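User: My collaborator sent over this chain with a note saying "see what the structure looks like." That's all I know about it. Can you take a look?
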Amino acid sequence: MKKRLLYLILLLSFSFAFAQTKPTFCVIGNATNKESVQKNKRLDISKIKVENISNQPIYLVWETVSNTFPKEWDCSMCQHGACQIGIPQGSAFRKLNADQQGFIAIHVIPSNKTGNGTVKFKIYDKANPDYAQILTFQVEAL
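Assistant: Without extra context I'll predict from the sequence alone. Here is the result:
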């Protein structure tokens, strides 16, 4: 009896651990966008979409992992539900219902400064932080 109870507890523990790491969202298309823009023009929008692949609402959180955009560039970013000036350290999406898509997007004005830069965002479900994706935006101003 004790062996069966122990086996049942172990089985439930492994099942719970597996359920917590099952992805609840996926990247639609490529997780990396490569863009080029003339130094006197603007990159109006570069967008990477994600989709809720679970059967319940999720709340995605993102963090800026790295940002090598030249300081002279004027940048902003948008996420599902809000836009912000600059590239902040992080934030959260509005609720994504089952089968709903959201996005992270950047906007860049190089201000006549040539160069290149990359910004990377780590994105994960607030309820399942062990599963994360890195979204990368590479921009070159010519």
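A starting point for your reply to your collaborator: The helical segments are 2-21.
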